[in-house]
């Protein structure tokens, strides 16, 4: 793989000398145009423009692992590492080379290679022994590869060089634990395991502690130490296990050096089959003064409609005592779900307000409990009991409402005074834990850097809002309620891995032999500081990337070009077959991963080329598919039985020139488009020749008449259908001049319009209680009923168009099928839709009834494009307000900007800093609470960064070892552009072995990145059935 930077003139000549097998060739049949990566015969070229021989063995199969000498058949030499212990070869070890025949230092120096490259000295130990001493230390846990050209040393041996591999020692360490750190639902009869990188460790028991304390005994199973308790662990309990760093190795002074600690949670006790349970919909609820609190409840099990609940109401005497309760809850790790579920508050210091028997009222989806009193301002604990089951919820009574959005960078708290409906100005917002305090501005907003503990997201976090005699505590992450009730997890709106860098990683092939060279091209560029050069390495790994038993096979340090690009060559030797990962590691974080397959394979000796007689045809037309079978250097293969399959099946035999053909008649496409592609595959009929296939495809058009249709709405009850018909000509496609098939408008074309009216008929299915109006309401389901309205046939005018006005009635929608027939009998139809009052709107990922509406036909935005959005309630835009009750928030690796206004419509400029994508959310304050729409992701138009590549060669065909001269030119919109070019040479026969994945740097480099949001939370929410 060569890496070439284009300098002032964006054109470069590349010479490739003598790297092809005798059966290989390079051709320039397929020039690259309008793509960032393309293929010319065996040449793969990658371009980036952003403005911004080591032999490796898998651990455990190294022939000279831990210093044991390699013994190769029919060889007269051995090589032994002289400084070795149970963990491997020491970093400063010398090596003793022994021969059955006389051996001199001069012979060794002239024919020895050490990788990684280090200097070395030699010393004549005896007539047949030479000591080799590296002049610098090797890295820990790395592979040392030493090779010797034996035929040059002894003069009477022919064949491959002798090769040895040694693994340097690594520090005594724990490779993995069982259970893993942070895991939940661990069986109470589970053991505890430590897996070490050696089996020579000392007695482990004196070095282990566990909390809560239990009796432990231990057993050794090779490099795994197993601990268990004679009794069971407790249910729903968080255990912390620590292994002291002073644990050592038998007969060695080395120890672990530092403690190893992990935490796990045991399973909950299993419920009986005939059990009953209930949960509050969330763990926090807030109510204005003067209202009776309503709690939403999920009841399930043997009785999902209990008659009544007993509620005991406790009041916290002070805000400080309420904060003490919050601190007790935040001591539980967020992942410890069983402990959280079983948590009970301490009521000994609380004032009991009263106990109430409350009826359970079944709602449409859940049930509701209403306290018969309106408590005073303050903080409360509510404990509900039903059929022996208890659950609790925290209640706050007060007249200050808030919306909070926490992100990886900044946090926003919007506070409103419910007594005035105005922003709560000069209120303090304090993060409990760090003590960080911010004051709200004249819009009621506190905007500040997110505390570090919220970003690490290990424990529950909260904020306390104070002002004008009001106090409100709100959660800052997901520690106070069922997952996703009010929390929108960062992973949901995010990408993969660290978003700090633009990244790309590409291996020149997907399949390699056990002894081969993996060539890698990649890109790493800091998004905010393009001049920053991080520490970068490429490593080969095997094993699960999510479990600790993953092993690193090889590591290469990387030097970046000024563009942030790099190329690496990683020779591998004697690896076992299987899948391996090539990983891009930046500052010790894996940012990118591509898999490769190691396998013993045989390259095919021939290629099969197939193509249709015409590139495009109409349904019903008959053509020939023609093909050839040749050796890769061009010699035809005659009299080979071939089979073809796809839309048709059959057999054919190649002639004396390796040529073959078979007929094909196209059928009408079942797809909705005017055309589709039909593909046929051709392979050898004799399985002994392998399973290598060739394929060809033809573009099949359903009709020689195409059309466009639009629907507009002059009024709520009128839909205007417009159709424009076009002639379809295939001459341009078949000549290779264009992909365009429309050849002007078509007049006097009959168009059929079939209309079906759709209504949804309401059917009563039961009742539910409406808490707002305090009455029973009917519950309904809706049945879809269709009413055919007939078919209208109209003819296009001289401009190829026609119009039809369709009247509509309220609460109805319409299915409209538009179809045409061509003179040859071919037909084409589409189905579209209309409805009374206007077109359908797709409101993605609605949060309740509020949604963010935008232009869904826009697929990508250029820099400085305007993004228009509005907040809708159902299908209607929310009316503008006198007070500023709407907020629009822009996220890009954190909250970047917010705007509060009185209009429900907003325009955002897609700034350069928002490449490759920006998220937006709308928030509406209705006078009591805040409604947050779901986020929408607006993506950068990647085509704006696409370059055109032109590649030409000085010849069409080359002899082995002949120089290949390529001229590569890069342009953008016809103008030369300097860029970095990657040229990869791959034997063409490889692509007959496997499907090569598309090379798409742009989509990888400009992949979506995370919003950076941690969560949003709105206080004073209505129960779901009421909002």
From TrEMBL:
<keyword id="KW-0812">Transmembrane</keyword>
<keyword id="KW-0732">Signal</keyword>
<dbReference type="InterPro" id="IPR032812">
    <property type="entry name" value="SbsA_Ig"/>
</dbReference>
<feature type="domain" description="Alpha-2-macroglobulin bait region">
    <location>
        <begin position="852"/>
        <end position="993"/>
    </location>
</feature>
<feature type="transmembrane region" description="Helical">
    <location>
        <begin position="35"/>
        <end position="56"/>
    </location>
</feature>
<dbReference type="Pfam" id="PF13205">
    <property type="entry name" value="Big_5"/>
</dbReference>
<keyword id="KW-1133">Transmembrane helix</keyword>
<dbReference type="InterPro" id="IPR011625">
    <property type="entry name" value="A2M_N_BRD"/>
</dbReference>
<keyword id="KW-0472">Membrane</keyword>
<protein>
    <recommendedName>
        <fullName>Alpha-2-macroglobulin bait region domain-containing protein</fullName>
    </recommendedName>
</protein>
<dbReference type="Pfam" id="PF07703">
    <property type="entry name" value="A2M_BRD"/>
</dbReference>
């Amino acid at each position: 793989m060569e890496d070439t930077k284009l300098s002032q003139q964006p054109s470069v000549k590349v010479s490739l000398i003598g790297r092809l097998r005798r059966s290989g060739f390079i051709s320039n049949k397929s020039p690259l145009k309008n793509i960032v990566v393309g293929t010319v015969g065996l040449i793969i070229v990658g371009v980036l423009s952003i403005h911004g021989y080591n032999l490796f063995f898998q651990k455990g199969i190294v022939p000279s692992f831990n210093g044991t000498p390699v013994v190769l058949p029919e060889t007269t030499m051995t090589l032994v590492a002289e400084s070795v212990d149970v963990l491997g070869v020491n970093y400063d070890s010398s090596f003793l080379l022994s021969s059955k025949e006389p051996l001199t230092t001069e012979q060794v120096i002239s024919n020895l290679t050490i990788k990684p490259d280090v200097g070395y000295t030699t010393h004549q130990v005896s007539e047949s022994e030479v000591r080799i001493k590296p002049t610098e230390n090797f890295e820990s846990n790395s592979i040392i590869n030493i090779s010797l050209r034996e035929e040059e040393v002894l003069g009477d041996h022919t064949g491959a060089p002798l090769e040895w591999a040694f693994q340097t020692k690594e520090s005594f360490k724990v490779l993995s634990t069982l259970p893993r750190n942070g895991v939940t639902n661990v069986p109470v009869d589970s053991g505890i395991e430590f897996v070490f990188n050696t089996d020579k460790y000392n007695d482990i028991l004196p070095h282990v502690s566990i909390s809560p304390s239990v009796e432990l005994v231990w057993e050794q199973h090779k490099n795994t130490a197993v601990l268990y308790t004679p009794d069971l662990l407790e249910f729903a309990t968080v255990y912390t296990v620590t292994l002291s760093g002073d644990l050592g190795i038998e007969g060695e002074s080395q120890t672990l050096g530092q403690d190893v600690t992990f935490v796990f949670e045991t399973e909950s006790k299993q419920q009986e089959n005939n059990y009953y349970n209930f949960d509050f919909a969330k763990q926090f609820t807030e109510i204005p003064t003067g209202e009776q609190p309503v709690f939403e409840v999920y009841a399930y099990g043997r009785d999902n409609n209990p008659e009544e609940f007993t509620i005991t109401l406790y009041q916290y005497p002070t805000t400080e005592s309420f904060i003490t309760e919050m601190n007790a809850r935040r001591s539980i790790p967020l992942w410890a779900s069983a402990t959280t579920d079983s948590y009970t508050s301490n009521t000994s210091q609380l004032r009991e307000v009263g106990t109430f028997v409350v009826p359970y009222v079944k709602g449409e989806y859940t049930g509701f409990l209403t306290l018969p009193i309106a408590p005073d301002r303050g903080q409360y604990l509510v404990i509900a009991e039903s059929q022996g089951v208890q659950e609790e919820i925290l209640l706050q009574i007060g007249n200050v409402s808030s919306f909070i959005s926490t992100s990886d960078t900044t946090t926003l708290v919007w506070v409103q005074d419910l007594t005035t409906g105005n922003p709560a100005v000069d209120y303090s917002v304090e993060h409990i834990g760090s003590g960080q305090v911010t004051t709200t501005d004249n819009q009621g907003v506190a905007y500040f850097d997110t505390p570090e503990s919220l970003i690490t997201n290990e424990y529950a976090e909260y904020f306390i809002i104070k002002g004008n005699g009001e106090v409100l505590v709100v959660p800052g992450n997901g520690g106070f309620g069922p997952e996703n009730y009010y929390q929108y997890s960062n992973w949901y709106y995010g990408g993969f891995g660290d978003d700090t860098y633009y990244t790309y990683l590409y291996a020149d092939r997907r399949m390699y032999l056990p002894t081969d060279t993996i060539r890698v091209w990649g890109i790493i560029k800091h998004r905010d500081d393009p001049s920053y050069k991080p520490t970068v390495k490429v490593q080969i790994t095997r094993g699960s990337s999510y479990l600790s038993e993953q092993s690193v096979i090889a590591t290469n340090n990387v030097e970046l070009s000024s563009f942030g690009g790099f190329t690496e060559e990683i020779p591998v030797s004697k690896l076992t077959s299987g899948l391996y990962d090539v990983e891009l590691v930046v500052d010790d974080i894996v940012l990118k991963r591509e898999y490769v397959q190691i396998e013993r394979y045989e390259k095919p000796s021939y290629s099969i080329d197939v193509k249709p007689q015409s590139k495009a045809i109409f349904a019903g037309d008959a053509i020939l598919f023609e093909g050839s079978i040749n050796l890769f250097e061009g010699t035809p293969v005659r009299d080979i039985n071939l089979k073809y399959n796809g839309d048709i099946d059959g057999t054919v035999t190649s002639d004396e020139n390796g040529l073959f053909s078979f007929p094909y008649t196209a059928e009408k496409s079942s797809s909705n488009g005017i055309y589709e592609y039909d593909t046929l595959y051709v392979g050898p009929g004799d399985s002994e020749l392998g399973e290598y296939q060739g394929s060809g495809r033809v573009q099949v058009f359903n009709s020689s008449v195409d059309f466009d249709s639009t629907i507009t709405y002059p009024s709520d009850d009128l839909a205007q259908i417009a159709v424009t018909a076009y002639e379809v000509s295939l001459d341009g496609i078949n000549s290779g001049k264009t992909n365009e098939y429309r050849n002007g408008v078509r007049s006097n074309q009959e168009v059929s319009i079939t209309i079906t009216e759709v209504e949804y008929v309401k059917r009563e299915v039961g009742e539910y209680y409406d808490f707002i109006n305090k009455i029973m309401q009917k519950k309904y389901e809706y049945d879809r009923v269709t009413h055919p309205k007939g078919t209208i046939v109209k003819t296009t005018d001289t401009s190829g168009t026609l119009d039809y006005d369709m009247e509509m009635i309220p609460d109805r929608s319409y299915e409209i099928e538009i179809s045409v027939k061509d003179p040859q009998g071919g037909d084409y139809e589409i189905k579209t839709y209309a409805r009374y009052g206007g077109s359908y709107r797709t409101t993605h990922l609605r949060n309740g009834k509020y949604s963010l509406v935008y232009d869904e036909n826009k697929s990508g935005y250029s820099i400085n494009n305007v993004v228009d959005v509005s907040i809708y309630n159902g299908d209607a835009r929310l009316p503008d307000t006198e007070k500023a009750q709407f907020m629009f928030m822009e996220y890009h690796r954190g909250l970047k900007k917010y705007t509060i206004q009185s209009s429900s419509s907003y325009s955002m400029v897609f700034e350069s800093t928002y490449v490759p994508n920006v998220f937006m959310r709308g928030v509406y304050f209705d006078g009591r609470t805040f409604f947050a729409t779901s986020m929408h992701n607006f993506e950068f138009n990647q085509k704006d960064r696409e370059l055109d590549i032109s590649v030409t060669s000085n010849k069409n065909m080359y002899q082995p070892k002949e120089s290949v001269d390529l001229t590569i030119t890069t342009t953008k919109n016809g103008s030369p552009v300097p860029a970095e070019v990657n040229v990869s040479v791959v034997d063409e026969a490889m692509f007959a072995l496997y499907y090569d994945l598309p090379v798409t740097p742009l989509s990888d480099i400009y992949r979506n990145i995370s919003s950076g949001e941690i969560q949003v939370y709105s206080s004073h929410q209505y129960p779901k059935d009421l909002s």
